[in-house]
Amino acid sequence: MTARDPNRGEVPVAQSREEPPEFGPEFRERLYDLLSWRRDVRRFKRTPLPQGTIERLIAIACLSPSVGLSEPWRFVVVDDKARRAEIRACFEACNKDALQMQEPDRAALYARLKLAGLDDAPCQLAVFADHGTAQGAGLGRLTMPAALDYSVAIAIHTLWLAARAEGIGLGWVSILDPKRIAAILEVPEAWTFIGYLCLGFPAAEDDRPALERAGWEHRHPPAGSIFYR
After folding, report:
1. Neighbours of 184 (CB within 10 A)
2. Chain segment 78-111, per-residue pLDDT in tens
3. Distance between CA atoms of 192 and 179, rounded to whole angstroms?
4. Beta strands per DSSP E along 123-209
């Protein structure tokens, strides 16, 4: 079910149902395809996203679970060219430092990889966790205050999958200085930077991560991550 917002277009609206929906084998197979083909996109077409797309995807992300129903996610859509340029400069400085920390062989490979979509992605989004929110009355945060950050990370993943289902790519830029990003975007001090996202139509599709294709790293069998006590 959707509703029309004059400024955002069609946005999802949660609806109550007497009976839960059934998710059959065909749906589960398609869900697995979605998970398998989700990529951290670095190369984008410059084609703008349809009007209202980012607001609709954010609305879907807000269906994510959050500790104490705190909904601590804060999304900053970065359209201003001057702010984008400052964020690009921040990336360049951090990327230079990251390159110097790599071994020579890996540094050469690292240098060949385009690790940001900051030049081409038509939509850019900074995501924060509001540690000052009173919503949720602090439930679940006394012993693990980082649960707020975890909640925002889940919301990002939800947005990521929703975007991929529409053929939209998302790239998470992590080579940034959190304090610098907060200053550039002039957000409240209680907000903690979680991620900078580039969104747009991908220049290419692949079912394997770019780092794996480039020989940087490879996936390992899930059994190696399971422990029994």
Report:
1. 21
2. 999 999 999 999 998 998 887 787 787 777 776 6
3. 9
4. 123-130, 169-173, 191-200
Residue 207 banded pLDDT, cuts 50, 70, 90: confident
Residue 4 has pLDDT above 80, yes or no: no
Measured distance CA(211)–CA(123) in Å, rounded? 23
CA–CA separation, 196 and 84 (whole Å)? 11
- What b/e readout covers 196-225, taking b as 16+ CB neighbours within 10 angstroms? bbbbbbbeeeeeeebbeeeeeeeeeeeeee
Contact present, 200 and 45 (Cβ < 8 Å): yes
Block residue for tokens 């807000």:
62
pTM of the prediction?
0.87
Tens digits of residue pLDDT in 153-164: 999 999 999 999
Cβ-contact 166, 175 below 8 angstroms: no
For residues 12 and 64, what is the distance between their CA atoms, to the nearest angstrom?
13
**Which residues on neighbouring strands pair with residue 171, listed in sequence order?**
198
- Domain ranges, ordered by start, for the chain: 40-203
The 3-state DSSP composition of the chain as helix, strand, coil percent (nearest 5) reads 40, 15, 45
Q: What digits encode the pLDDT tens for the residues 111-146?
A: 666 667 899 999 999 999 999 999 999 999 999 999
Q: Give, in order, the Cα–Cα distances in Å from 58 to each of 26, 195, 206, 209.
A: 27, 14, 25, 24
Handedness of CA 64, 70, 72, 77 (dihedral sign): positive
Domain 40-203 matching CATH 3.40.109.10: the answer reads yes
Query: At residue 136, what is the residue type?
Result: G
